[in-house]
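Feature request disguised as a bug report, sorry. It would help if multi-protein outputs had a clear separator. Right now it looks like this:
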Amino acid sequence: MIGYVTLGSNNIRRAAEFYDALLGEIGAQRFLQTEQFVAWSCGPGQTGLSVTKPFNGEAATVGNGVMVALAVDSNDQVDLIYNKALQLGATDEGAAGPRVEMPGFYAGYFRDLDGNKLNVFCMVPPAA
């Protein structure tokens, strides 16, 4: 249903370096790029993530209540991406681990270098 998600940035070069390293861990690569915009995807037809300088020329700000969720295939990948984000300078918004209020949901939350909130998650069916 979602084609791509765009996050605002005030420093495209810095944001691109962060997401090159972070999204590279799950096989995503840049597929579109201008001086104002960079986009990544894991392949044709896959959902993309992009960063952009706001079109109106004003400073990028963080949307209250807005979050981008990155889906991965295993709890180990959640741990890998969450820890990689922190190594790259992201800030912790909730350590990687199971969420007791949602059985089978394993996630880690962080804010990127511009303050945008993301999570990386995996859905594992609860044990019978």
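(second protein starts here, but nothing in the output says so)
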Amino acid sequence: MSDMAWYKTVKFKWMMAMAIIWLVVDQVTKIWVVNNIAYRSKGITVIDGFFDIVHAQNSGAAMGFLNDYEHRMLVFAVFTVIALGVLAQMYREIPADDRFQSIALGLVFSGAIGNAIDRIHKQSVTDFLRVYTEHETLKPWLAENIGWTEWPSFNVADAAIVVGLGMFIWFFAFLQEDEDELEPEPPESPVDINA
């Protein structure tokens, strides 16, 4: 890195801005839901038959995985430490002026910390975004072919992680320049005409 301080780099500023903004949004929305929507009630209908704001508590991982496992908090703690280690390594590998990957990293970081705060505070995560269908044609088709008509409730931290990971997938699939193109070709060796 040049003589620029690490905290003045574009990647640090963008990553921290995204992490702070989405961590605050995540925590504020969870607090609002806990204080304003009764647990396991119908909640607030935003788009009838498709999207509600509800109050759910998930003591497991995604889709209730490990809900009943006695040592799940230890598993989550270990997973969070490993995830933060991976994120730290990814941060080191991002070029100092890269905005796109820094934003993606900030989103994933904010989501990991946001859900970790919930687990430390109350051993469960507040979920409140409910996406489902009551569509007459779509509901039977989903039930028959996929087995469900409702996505498990999630929160802003979950959404930030998914969007951040999606950005990384997009970057590595479509935006990353081929390393061969970045390396200059070696100069041709002069031809000895006397040979």
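Even a blank line would do. Unrelated, but nice: The beta strands are 44-47, 51-58, 125-132, 150-154.
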